[in-house]
Amino acid sequence: MTDTAREQVAPQTIQVTVDGTPVPAVPGELVIEVAERAGVYIPRFCYHPRMEPVGMCRMCLVEVSGPRGFSLQPACYVRVADGQEVRTSSPKAAKAQEGVLEFLLVNHPLDCPVCDKGGECPLQDQALSHGPGESRFVEEKRHWEKPIEIGPLIHLDRERCIQCARCTRFAAEVAGEALIDFAFRGAHIEVAPFPERPFSSYFSGNTVQICPVGALTAAPYRFRSRPWDLEQVETTCVTCSVGCRVAAQSSAGRLVRYLGIDSEPVNQSWLCDKGRFGYEAVHATNRVTRPLVRRAGELVEARWAEALREVAAGVRQSDQRFGPGGIAVLGGARLTNEDAYAWSKLAKSILRTDHVDAQLGDGLPAELVLGLPRATIDDAVHAKALIVLAPDLREELPVLYLRLRKAAATVPVIECSTVPTALSEVAHVRCGYLPGEAQRLAGALVGDGSIEEIPGADPAEIERARAVLSALSGEGSDAAVGDGVVIVLGRPSLAEDARSIAGAAALLQRALPGARFLSVLRRANVHGALDMGLAPGILPGRVGLEAGRQWFEAAWGELPSDRGRDARGILEAAASGELSMLILLGADPIADFPDAALARHALEQVDLLVAVATHRDASNELAHVVLPVAGADERFGSTTNLEGRVTRLAPKVVPPGVAWPAWSVAAELARTLGNDLGCSSIETLSREISRLAPAHRGIDLDQLSAPERRDGIVAPLAETPVTLLGRRDGTSPRPIDPMATPGIFSVEEQGAPLGAGTALPVGGSGRRASSPEGARPPLLALGGLEALGLGGGAPGRLDAYSFRLVLRRALYDHGTLVQASLSLRGLAGQAVLAANPHVLEQLGVQAGDPVRCKSERGAIEVPIAPDASLARNVVVLTANLDDGANALVDAGSPVTDVRLETLA
Amino acid sequence: MAALTPENFERARAIVALYPKARSALIPLCHLAQSQDGWLTPEAMEDIAALVGVTPAEVRGTASFYDMLHTEPVGRHVIAVCTNIACMLGGAYELLEHAEEHLGIAVGQTTADGEFTIEEAECLAGCDTAPCVQVNHRFFGPLDAASFDALCERLRSGELGGDVPHHGTLCRVERAVGLLATEGERGGDER
Amino acid sequence: MITDAPRIVTSRLGHSDSHTLERYLATGGYEGLRAALARPPAEIREEVDKASLLGRGGAGFPAGRKWSMLRPAEITYLVINGDESEPATFKDHLLIERDPHQVIEGTIIAAYALGVAQAFIFCRGEFALGLERLSQAVNEAYAHGALGRNIFGSGWSLDLVIHPGAGAYICGEETALLESLEGKRGFPRIKPPYFPAAIGLYGAPTVVNNIETMSNLPWIVRNGGAAFAALGQGSSTGTRLFALSGRVERPGWYELEMSKTTFADLIMDPSLGGGVKDGHDLKAFIPGGVSAPWFGPEHLSLGLDQDAVAKQGSMLGSGSVVVMDDTTCAVRAAWRITRFFYRESCGQCTPCREGSGWLEKILRRIEEGAGREADLDLLMDACDNIAPGVSWPPQQTTICVLGPSIPSSIASGIRMFRDEFLLHVKEGGCPMRDAR
Ligand SMILES: Cc1cc2nc3c(=O)[nH]c(=O)nc-3n(C[C@H](O)[C@H](O)[C@H](O)COP(=O)(O)O)c2cc1C
Ligand code: SF4
Ligand code: FES
What we know:
The structure holds 3 protein chains of 3 kinds.
Chain A: H1 3-7, E1 14-18, E2 21-25, H2 31-37, E3 61-66, E4 69-74, E5 84-87, H3 91-106, H4 122-130, E6 148-149, E7 154-156, H5 166-174, E8 180-183, E9 190-193, H6 204-210, E10 216-218, E11 231-236, E12 245-251, E13 254-260, H7 273-277, E14 292-295, E15 298-301, H8 304-322, E16 327-331, H9 337-350, E17 356-357, H10 366-371, H11 377-381, E18 385-389, H12 393-396, H13 398-407, E19 413-417, E20 429-432, H14 438-445, H15 459-473, E21 485-489, H16 498-511, E22 516-519, H17 526-531, E23 538-539, E24 543-544, H18 545-556, H19 567-575, E25 581-585, H20 589-592, H21 596-605, E26 608-613, E27 625-628, E28 637-640, E29 645-649, H22 662-672, H23 682-692, H24 701-705, E30 713-714, E31 803-808, H25 816-820, H26 822-825, E32 833-835, H27 837-843, E33 850-854, E34 859-866, E35 874-878, E36 897-902
Parallel strand pairs in A: 1-5, 16-17, 16-25, 18-19, 18-21, 19-20, 21-22, 25-26, 26-27, 31-35, 32-34
Antiparallel strand pairs in A: 1-2, 3-4, 3-5, 6-7, 7-10, 8-9, 11-12, 12-13, 14-15, 14-27, 23-24, 28-29, 29-30, 31-36, 32-35, 33-34, 33-36
Helix pairs in contact in A: 3-4, 5-6, 9-22, 9-23, 14-16, 19-21
Chain B: H1 6-17, H2 26-37, H3 42-52, H4 56-63, E1 77-82, H5 85-89, H6 92-103, E2 116-121, E3 133-135, E4 138-140, H7 145-157
Parallel strand pairs in B: 1-2
Antiparallel strand pairs in B: 1-3, 3-4
Chain C: H1 21-26, H2 31-37, H3 41-51, H4 63-68, E1 77-82, H5 91-98, H6 100-114, E2 118-123, H7 128-144, E3 159-164, H8 174-181, E4 206-210, H9 211-215, H10 217-223, H11 225-229, E5 232-233, E6 236-237, E7 239-246, E8 252-257, H12 263-268, E9 282-286, H13 306-311, E10 320-325, H14 330-344, H15 350-368, H16 374-386, H17 402-427
Parallel strand pairs in C: 1-2, 1-4, 2-3, 7-10
Antiparallel strand pairs in C: 5-6, 7-8, 9-10
């Protein structure tokens, strides 16, 4: 059922009879859905529950009663009517179904033994269940050139194609970019990209997953495994913070495939290609497999005990030099919740430092993210209006982009962005603005401030946006202003200081108190890390340091006395010699911090740089000690997506070498320091979180393991009642559909790989901390601009010779994960500086010519590319390609202005 | 091979403006591009995509559905021999065989000099003159072997230039008048 | 006996300049429109209803009734179907090339009657000359004040666009035609819900009518619906333009009074078809385009009447009659017609896309001498899987009726000439090969 049908679930029911059994139904439901609810499976090919029906393949023909008696109708297309009678296996229906299957096989090559789909193929399965017993076809079959590469990740075998149009419809309807389409006619129809523009979509892998035959295959999986050799487990993709549910599949101890699971509230079966194929990074050659310590300038392998002793020595030395507060912890956004909790506890109660930040200066203040009233994806797609103040979501959170893109058909979207994004195409209003002016733009939107003279903004657009918002306030007098509005909030550009965005958010919240926020921070578990207290001034469960001090000191022991520094503060302190020791929790500040020069300098300055890491990267190249930890698909635990939805992770393969889960590194380090973190297993950690962390009360791994909780639980439990749209209880509207997602099989029955967990050390005493006495501390709530200390930070005027820099992210970049995935690494684009064509003209340069781009902070040389959609005073660079663009940014300044010079 | 010339680009805009929705102009624009180059060049398809607001893959996908639109180069004269029932009863297959032999190419092929392409056509609505043949969509028929050969000769010599323009030229009358009924209310409002 | 009914749509065709505005005006052109504009639209609709004008595109649905089904809406469209590609049909071709103003005048009258402000004529792309003449005529009609703003001072305005097709038979099917007009591939839409009168062009209510249907309107407005209904009998009123081809002496177009003229008249009368070619015997004939089941000599006496033909299990369809004589091989004829459907299937529906190709291959095999006796049952069973019951009018497993039209010729061939099919199998090839 579509979202619209969902809304009118108001149970106006009608009666339909399917094969003699009466079934209640909702008007507008498809016959195929109603039959499925009645336990009657109607064969199908073109129908996919997540796309509009087209009734093309004719496989689902059944007899349906109408005013003129029974007729054969496509069950996937016809909507039920009251009193209707449906016969799915009458002689006439059965003959029609057999006929269609026979016709489909007429030209099918029947090369099942060498086909990836063989064994999990809907065509095979339905030929068996609904097809004729034997073939009467003796003629020559249709021939095509065997697999052709239609995109960097996708191969097409046209002989196997049954012309169901699922892939082409996905591209046009769901992804919104028809890079493939049917070409030619009739028996000659083929799926084809435009020859000069291959099928290089961020979503191309979905077409492979929904192909009901083996026509589309994915380059990374081709010939890697047979379905019957696959083991699988259901887990969550940790590529970004959307947290798509996936089936991770392995063969012979190696991951070979990810398939998207249809999680109603989250990914609705789709994945992006980075998430789908990024599993290759798990088996990359640059994994850290053993502890490394620096000896005579070189990192050499060491035993765990030795490495941990080295770290412990550093801790003691730091204590001597600076007392508590000489140590800082950066990162943690790629850990599990339990890892993050353990490190938060270690840092704050044992190392007694509050200089802890899971973000790398590229996000938003933790108080803001945690304190704003939160929205779920569901809230967003059913909002009365959406305000999007965020980066290009297609580049950063692709599946969220798909959900919002679809929503834009029914929900008015107001996009506020410095440069056009993929969403701009479907937005009702796009309000442009010059980087640094977000707060003023927000003020103008809600009628707080003039709409004129906002640099980069068009008053007419602001007027239109205001009209959208004011049209809402008319309704429901007792509702708070802004009720039903969802604000999608993120960091549009790394070169635009977070304070401006935070200021905008605070303004919007004050003017629209009924509005809710969907935070679109990017890294996989950044929200979990913040929730677990990996941020300055924050304790686990979304409480402030002071508010939670009593509660947590009772459980943990003494806490740092003052609020610590954030990432920028930490790096600045380190660079100026005010820190002795820095621990990187899977963080690569040299690549990711907007001010690369500062990051590098800071890492070089500290006495001891410790990296807890899965892969080697630019930052841990400088470390004194590198500790190997388990990564995606190698560990138990939970993760939290951008909605605050906590889901279970499950391991499918064993970590390489002697890598440990990060939480046990924390536990062992505590022990080496002569302390006890008080947690001996992931379960005890999980229970401790559920007991202590106020926002996570009642949420633990046991809870999450219940089959009906596989879609996760949005924290906090009490505040957001979880709608359990169970996918697997027989009555659910959307059980696992072998036709919708061929290849996913009984996820319940298969679990962790043999041997996972046995390599884990048994640390700690297993002492169970009990809940402290007294009232739980209150959750953070945003106290307004002042509370955040967000005053100031207004950008200066842009002088006539300068351009304001937008530093955006691309899905495929030179980040660790992409580069460690063989199939993805080549997809990172060329670094270019995009500018209005007028700028090229002024400079007298051609597209592709290199230019020097200079800021106060640094300079880079990069080819220039014209982009007519940009304003003339803005230039755009992409972070983390090979040009080192983040060297230009001054993290301390609200915006970064650059000048361009030609290279003679 | 070029994208649309500036004049044709202007012409294309005018055609788009005839329709309530820009995409409706897709096929007329393909005809326009084909009259320019004799076939649909990739560059022209990209132009058309931009003009009507779809992807180049959709332009190619849509255009290739139609027999008259060629996504590969063809000869200057595309000879379409109808072999459907009425023409078959009038000897169309025999004529087609003769044509293949005479020109030394099979159906679907183009002569080495780029002069002729032969197509086997479905009914061209010229059944009273069976077997009926179109050259660049201009009718000839009934034809027999001798008159076919003579026709080829006249085409080759350019004698029929006025009657049979080069391949792709469809309608040489342009719309001279505007949108009198509803002007101003539309014109590519999708874009 | 050939009746003395007036020529309604071909009155001007004797003139070599019949396509020009001068000739048109000199022969009563645009008078029907002027007369129509003087009356309220409802009265025009009544006249057409009274005329009982059956659609000339193939389905034969009364135009007046179709118009009454147009869902009232702010924007509605009129689309004229000039995609004529049903094999052996060439009447619209004629009307477009030789009397374009009549088509346009009829279209304007229909638009006026329906209250439509935007009309399209979808003209088959292969009619290059027709497109030029139609376009020229539209330019002239604008200049003459018959199109555009404030037509003939009536205060009513209409815009008319000539839209070229690009070569695909399926675009004659009205919903495929609308898709094509929207700039897409010609995939027919599923009915319901996509009945054009309810959800048509751009989702707006749309009337789709045939070229010949339109060409009748000027006459009907000038002479009244009753005068039209007085011709013919029963529901088959007026005259119709028949296209005669195949093995006859005088192939061509003939405008004949419906019902009162017979197939025998059309094929045999010396002033019309002039008899079977070269004195051969009539073997069979197709009464209404290749989608229609075949008739044999016993049907010659049947009137050119929609209901009478339907009662005999076929259709008058697009008004095209193909004559087969004793030199015609039934297998080859069925094969060529099936090949047509195979080449023209849009490809959406599995039974039509795959079935047409399979049937074509079997028939070719039989014709070429590799047939088996079991092939006849196989042919019929595969046909049954496309059109359950293989009857006429057909049931369907497909979206549009192109698919279920495939069995017509195959079933006719096997039913009427079973022995000839078997002879192919027995003799390992076509027994009539040499007769050709
Ligand atoms: C496969 C198929 C092809 C058709 N081809 C034509 C055609 O070429 N011309 C035409 O006028 N109608 C054709 N029709 C009929 C149209 O769908 C439609 O009924 C007709 O244009 C309505 O006009 P009328 O009511 O004036 O006859 C075709 C129908 C089908 C199913
Ligand atoms: S029946 Fe044939 S032509 Fe008609 S929609 Fe289906 S595939 Fe297309
Ligand atoms: S027609 Fe219903 S599943 Fe394809």
